[in-house]
Design brief:
With 173 residues, this protein is an alpha/beta fold. 32% of the residues lie in helices and 20% in strands. It contains 5 helices and 7 strands. The strands form 3 sheets. It has a 3-stranded parallel sheet. A two-stranded parallel sheet has the order 1-2. Strand 5 and strand 6 form a beta hairpin. Helix 4 packs parallel to helix 5. The longest helix is centred in the N-terminal third of the chain and has 18 residues. The protein is globular. The two termini are 20 Å apart. 35% of the residues are buried.
Amino acid sequence: MIDLQRGVVQGCFDAGGVLGRTAQLVERARSAGVPVVWVQDHGSFAEGTNEWALAAPLERGVNEPLVRKEYRDSFADTDLADVLGSLGVHHLVVAGAQSDYCIRTTTQTAAARGFDVTLVSDAHTTTDVEYDGVLITGEQIVAHTNMFFDSLRYPGHRYAAERHDQVELQPDR
């Protein structure tokens, strides 16, 4: 679960829906014995502030790892790889914000590092942006990110973009 913090999701496309679907996914994972790992941006938001906190209704479980990051790639200069290794994880299910930055960068890096990855197609979000005079809506960015990731291919690995209620959750061990 990447950057689903109050300060990150503010103004994002369908933020309330994404948070609700993510909460359902997290509860399903916990019930299935699948580890839940939280990644939070602490470069843009001071830890412990209102903006740094997870957005409701999300709550990190007492024993669930927290990875603090400063860059868009959740693997860059963090202990995420070590955390995943200690949990025996080989398949990542990714939800979070923002689709065009942290989600896309982290899923691409995970794929390149040899993880199987499922991007939860209805549980990531971002804001509208303007680039070079062109408005790109958050909804368009989410759709493009899903399309990009659903067609990603690396030899010997599985990638998919699936809705939160269609994602299969099974422990890797």
